[in-house]
Amino acid sequence: MDILWMIEPWHWLVLGFILLIVEMFVPTFASLWFGAAAIIVAALSWLLPISVFVQVIIWLVLSAIFLLAWFKFIKPLSIDRTKAGLGGSVIIGETGMIIVQPQPDRAGTVRFSVPIVGAAEWVCRTRGEQVAVGDRVVVTDIVGNELIVSSMKSQAAMNNSKQI
């Protein structure tokens, strides 16, 4: 008798658990979905009289749906957008808002909408430019642990003068 016609529901269950165990050693999230689909096929084949061909088709379709759902909906939620652990140069060009006005004798504070290099708020100074609380600023340089910022208005004016 052909071996394909001798597949029992527990075969799908064993295949599913083997694929789940493989996922523990190969963290790609690929075999996880194939294993989950195999476990669902095992449950369906125990509950319903399904031919082996239909079982394989169900397994393939479920695996494809799970993979698509992973890459389209779930994985984008887990992306780290903080840039933590990267060099300081990644912060140059980022825009934030002044929450404590910098003075000539003391530094101010700028807040970013998402954490940049591990922090949402940074100590900042300007190069003689006046900025007020609530102004949008862009990071132009880094000196030690302080950011040098410039107002978005002055940056726009500089960009317009360069284009002329």
Automatic annotation (TrEMBL):
GO terms for cellular component: plasma membrane. Keywords: Membrane, Transmembrane, Transmembrane helix. This is Uncharacterized protein. InterPro entries: Membrane_assoc_protease, NA-bd_OB-fold. It comes from the Bacteria. The chain crosses the membrane at residues 12-40, 46-71.
